Amino acid sequence: MLLARPGRFFIRSVACSTRALSSRASAVLSALDIPTTPVELDGVYDGTWKGSGDFIESICPATGEILARVKTASPQELHHAIDRTREAYLAIRTMPAPRRGEIIRQIREALFAKREQLGALVSLEMGKIRTEGVGEVQEFVDICDYAVGLSRMMNGRVVASERPGHSILEVPNPLGVVAVLSAFNFPVAVYGWNLSVSLAAGNATLWKPSPTTPLCSIAVTKIISSVLEKNGLPGAVAGLVTGGKDVGEAVVQSKDVDMVSFTGSEHVGRIVGKAVQARFGKALLELGGNNAAIIMPDADLPLAVPAVFFGAVGTAGQRCTSTRRLYLHSSIAPDFISRLQKLYASVAPGDPLDSATLLGPVHTAAALRIHEEAIEDAKASGGEVLTGGTPFAASDLSSHLRGGFFARPTIVRPGTSSVQHPAWSTERFAPVLRVAEFSDLSEAIAWNNGVPQGLSSSLWTRDMRNVGKWIGAEGSDAGIVNVNVGTSGAEIGAAFGGNKSTGWGRESGGDAWKQYCRWSACTINFSDAAPLAQGVSFPA
Ligand code: NAD
């Protein structure tokens, strides 16, 4: 494996004063008006751009090239940004929701106009392939459409009162300041899910993106701030504070942040969840997945095999919904594995900016180590490697990609099927697929449900009895329960999220918007008496 650069991305001072970006990177950044000649970019926006904290480096995962150095938020700038966000909330909370919807519609138009360019930036900075980079921006566009409609449909309820001359209303109001802490693997869409719904609900949002994808957050914030400015709204309606763990911790601990929407690992999510709970704040957690596909003997293999291939290898195995476990009925297992191996043999690593590429890099040098660990775990359990397992040779890569972080997609058969074993129980964020064989559906469902995580799951069958069992009380315990659809990816219309150690959070569609509101039960007495509920009598 090519370990071109150390995993660290923080630096205290900037050593070089000039940099010559490759034409490949310059073209992508210039198309979004991101300067390519100054060394340092401001990484904080609260109505004005600034940044005087530590520097973070944006590194291209495909080449190892430093794309930019970004000035993060100092503690003072962070607190200032939280104050500005609160002021912005006070400014927009009384704006009629459909008016906020009109702002979201304009944001949607501005994002759509830059869809290809932003998609290319996602590919350049995160490493996902071109079609997925553009698809991620499209997801932001889609959720804006959804939020525009939502802005006219965020209805409360009128509830029948037991007391004469009384009405009970359940009323949604804006919540306040919503902080969005996001992961590296969806550097645009996760913010989009939150911003659009949160803004429709009347909140101001402060974004703390992954420290390894600051350019995506700067580009998105510039597009949104231009819309806010055009409409005479404070920029801090959609503010940005780049930074690492320190900035994240300070955001999470701030009593001035009403809700923390956190997307990331189980490890950090556990810390964040406890910290927010300790101050009785509101947390929405979207954490790791360890997603299984189950293939029954009657499955349509020409559909199932490519779906598992995309689920396990797409995004270089770095989606929260990536397929990490494959449970094959023993009657079709040899055939399925041999078909899958042929597809694995056909995929070659390439430049994610090249639209013909299907396999881009993993995101960092650290991810290469995670890939190795996943393979070692399987071997340590007495297992075997069925495909892959070795690093790419330099000759497998074009010369400009030899400083990049490319991991060979791998299939392993652990030596145990015990879901408690680390070879099965942990999410390894890399393209390693673990395989086992089962004899009946109940056994496969028990394995599906036996891990700590509960994000996505997929059953392949044509038998209605299996479908009923899978989606019912005895079925999958995940937040996403698919039939003849892979584990990876989802549409925005349904609420997205997972159960158990995935955090129980729900974002995007469905009823997810309700979490971004402050709900009140309002009992209104329009009678000439003041009766107590439950017939309680208290004469005074
Ligand atoms: P991560 O947990 O390392 O980082 C996520 C964010 O938390 C980053 O912005 C980081 O700077 C910040 N952070 C780190 N330490 C912190 C602390 N102590 N307090 C506050 N913030 C802190 O995750 P990652 O490596 O960027 O992303 C990969 C993970 O995200 C995977 O586990 C993946 O499954 C998960 N993920 C989940 C979903 C979902 O919807 N369920 C979506 C995308 C990614």
Widest sheet: strand order? 4-3-11-10-9-12-13
Q: Helix amount, in percent? A: 25-40%
Number of helices: 15
Q: Which stretches are low in confidence, meaning pLDDT under 50 for 5 or more residues running? A: 1-18
Largest sheet: 7 strands, mixed
Number of strands: 25
Q: Which secondary-structure class do the elements indicate?
A: alpha/beta
Mean pLDDT: 95
- Estimated radius of gyration: 25 Å
Q: In one word, what is the shape?
A: globular
The small-molecule ligands in this entry are:
nicotinamide-adenine-dinucleotide
Protein name: NAD-aldehyde dehydrogenase
Write up what this structure looks like.
The chain has 540 residues and is α/β, with parallel strands linked by helices. The protein contains 15 helices and 25 strands. The chain has helices at residues 23-30, 75-92, 97-113, 115-125, 130-150, 189-200, 214-230, 245-253, 266-278, 301-313, 333-346, 365-380, 422-425, 441-449, 464-471, and strands spanning 10-11, 40-42, 44-45, 49-50, 55-59, 66-71, 157-159, 166-174, 177-181, 204-208, 238-241, 259-263, 282-286, 291-295, 323-329, 384-387, 410-413, 432-438, 453-454, 456-460, 480-483, 495-496, 499-500, 507-508, 517-525. Strands 4-3-11-10-9-12-13 form a 7-stranded mixed sheet, sandwiched between helices. A 7-stranded mixed sheet has the order 16-17-18-15-14-20-21, with helices on both faces. Strand 7 and strand 8 (166-174) form a beta hairpin. Helix 3 (97-113) packs across helix 7 and helix 5 (130-150) runs parallel beside helix 6. It is globular, with a radius of gyration of 25 Å. The termini are far apart. The model is unreliable at 1-18 (pLDDT under 50). Nicotinamide-adenine-dinucleotide is lined by residues 181-186, 208, 210-211, 244-245, 248-249, 252, 263-265, 268, 271-272, 286-289, 320, 427, 429, 455, 498, 502.
